[in-house]
Amino acid sequence: MKKVTIIGSGNIGLSLAKGLVNKAFCSPKEVTLTRRNIQHLTEAVSLGFEISSNNAEAIKGAHIIVLAILPQQLNDVLEEIANHLDPKKQLIVSVISGVTCRDIKNKLGQDIQIIRAMPNTAISIGQSMTCIAGEEASKENMQEVTRMFETVGAVMKINEDLMTAATALCSCGIAFFLRGIRAASQGGVEVGFHADEALKMAVQTAKGAADLLLQTHSHPESEIDKVTSPKGCTIAGLNEMEHNGFSSSLIKGIKLSAIKAGGLYSADS
């Protein structure tokens, strides 16, 4: 068991804390959650977590320190904790969009071990797709962080230069797929279903499509081929969507989100 401090306990931070406890990574008493206004942590208190509004105090004795704050809050937080860190015993895990390991090392010193992680909001139900990177981190620390985030979903190790791309595809991607489900449900209303019926049908169909690929390790196009027949209704619908830019608009959206994700943090802010 290792003590974990999560600085910035909003939706991502609190969901991670719950996952760590649910999967027996640690006990609630071994997790300290911080937030400027601790009145927002009443649920955390009821679950047995330690809470604090003092980041410097909260990291004392912690083996892993998770930074789950906004990019514009980073410099202030690093100033608070810089003189209280033990580089030989503490590991920093950053889930902050657009912030590199180098950005943090430049503030805290080159000896500190830092691993970046990019989960998405499905972390709240233990279904996150989390990408992690830390070229200069030890193998043991990478394994430990992998275990941490496996408590709340799937984990993939990537090169850090792909982190902004991962942000767009996995973190922003939740919104893209949700918008697709919303559009499908609206189409269902157009063809005669009530809104609640259409939404339920669209959600389950999307879930079935995802599970089909996850469980069969198949490629999307091979599964599409199974449901398209000559002169059929499926290929007609697919072609109409493609003529109106379905795939190209999704690709362009992911590329633009990646560009935006790369510019969220300024070291001078």
TrEMBL record:
<keyword id="KW-0521">NADP</keyword>
<keyword id="KW-0028">Amino-acid biosynthesis</keyword>
<feature type="domain" description="Pyrroline-5-carboxylate reductase catalytic N-terminal">
    <location>
        <begin position="3"/>
        <end position="97"/>
    </location>
</feature>
<dbReference type="InterPro" id="IPR036291">
    <property type="entry name" value="NAD(P)-bd_dom_sf"/>
</dbReference>
<dbReference type="InterPro" id="IPR029036">
    <property type="entry name" value="P5CR_dimer"/>
</dbReference>
<comment type="pathway">
    <text>Amino-acid biosynthesis; L-proline biosynthesis; L-proline from L-glutamate 5-semialdehyde: step 1/1.</text>
</comment>
<protein>
    <recommendedName>
        <fullName>Pyrroline-5-carboxylate reductase</fullName>
        <ecNumber>1.5.1.2</ecNumber>
    </recommendedName>
</protein>
<dbReference type="GO" id="GO:0055129">
    <property type="term" value="P:L-proline biosynthetic process"/>
</dbReference>
<dbReference type="Pfam" id="PF14748">
    <property type="entry name" value="P5CR_dimer"/>
</dbReference>
<feature type="domain" description="Pyrroline-5-carboxylate reductase dimerisation">
    <location>
        <begin position="160"/>
        <end position="260"/>
    </location>
</feature>
<dbReference type="Pfam" id="PF03807">
    <property type="entry name" value="F420_oxidored"/>
</dbReference>
<dbReference type="InterPro" id="IPR000304">
    <property type="entry name" value="Pyrroline-COOH_reductase"/>
</dbReference>
<feature type="binding site">
    <location>
        <position position="55"/>
    </location>
    <ligand>
        <name>NADPH</name>
    </ligand>
</feature>
<keyword id="KW-0560">Oxidoreductase</keyword>
<keyword id="KW-0641">Proline biosynthesis</keyword>
<dbReference type="InterPro" id="IPR028939">
    <property type="entry name" value="P5C_Rdtase_cat_N"/>
</dbReference>
<dbReference type="GO" id="GO:0004735">
    <property type="term" value="F:pyrroline-5-carboxylate reductase activity"/>
</dbReference>
<comment type="similarity">
    <text>Belongs to the pyrroline-5-carboxylate reductase family.</text>
</comment>
<comment type="function">
    <text>Catalyzes the reduction of 1-pyrroline-5-carboxylate (PCA) to L-proline.</text>
</comment>
<dbReference type="GO" id="GO:0005737">
    <property type="term" value="C:cytoplasm"/>
</dbReference>
<dbReference type="InterPro" id="IPR008927">
    <property type="entry name" value="6-PGluconate_DH-like_C_sf"/>
</dbReference>
<feature type="binding site">
    <location>
        <begin position="68"/>
        <end position="71"/>
    </location>
    <ligand>
        <name>NADP(+)</name>
    </ligand>
</feature>
<keyword id="KW-0963">Cytoplasm</keyword>
